[in-house]
Design brief:
The protein has about 325 residues and is α+β, with helices and mostly antiparallel strands. About 25% of the residues lie in helices and about 30% in strands. The strands form 4 sheets. Strands 1, 2, 7, 8, 9, 10, 16 and 17 form an 8-stranded mixed β-sheet that branches.
Amino acid sequence: MKDYDITIIGAGLTGLTAARKLQSAGENVLIVDKGRSVGGRLATRRVAEGKADHGAQFFTVRTSELQQEVEQWLKNGWIKHWFGVDYPRYTAIDGMNGLAKHLADGLYVRTHTTVEKWREDDGGFTITAEDSSTWRSKKIIITAPVPQAGALLQKSGLGTEALERITFQPTCVGIFHFEKPTTLPASGHIDNQLPAGVERIVDHFKKGISKDVVVSVYMTADWSTEHYGDSDVLERMKERTGGYLSFDETVSEQLKRWRYAQAAATHSRSYEAVTDTVFAAGDAFLRPNDPSGRTRFESAFISGIDVAGAVMS
């Protein structure tokens, strides 16, 4: 049975950020994720000869910690300035999942691994996955969405009271492949004066990550909550956005439902110490002085930085 200093459950931005900081400090870290790739909502889907970001589209910078990283990522050629002058929006060169893969490089990550439970023993924990694999770890960080984290904590006999006020709303995203160029702005992005229920539209060909014309349509949290289980979500999307896109020229279409896309109620700290050896973190965990007050790329990054510091303290 292998032994690790720290196991991180969830390979999204928070988990990757924490792992990079911990590993650079000499800790032996394992990241596990039930998905087939790292990144979480840093998600990019291939569509024919093109691709589409269908989770986070871009990120902004408000903190010195992220600004320092962004400057290095720019030098590395991982990201670029997409649009916005006074308030720059950055995006990944080859899709947002490409940035996640760069961040995961050199880390020990096991995908397709769902943690079932753990039990505490002398000097740490024995962790069991659904595939019956087991390993030992001195400490645990859970960065999976809070509803999933809470269920895992309960299975392992730990309380979840501190996390119960955190609630999430879904987002429905339509991914449309077109034969011809769209009439969207040169940046490929629009998020203002859209029909009710539509949050943003992104042309990934104009964004610069796709060879084909592939467009993502994001619906608002309220609209997505109302229609999450409907069978005609894509048709409803097309009805709302027909003034912007020529759907008679589509090659294909597909729907992505994000159940835990954004927190309706956030946590007042950037991580939670469930015990002195088990921690919860993620984009819904905000510093008390967070200037935005909402979940976003930067809140996930900061949570990863802060929980790593807490684990080592």
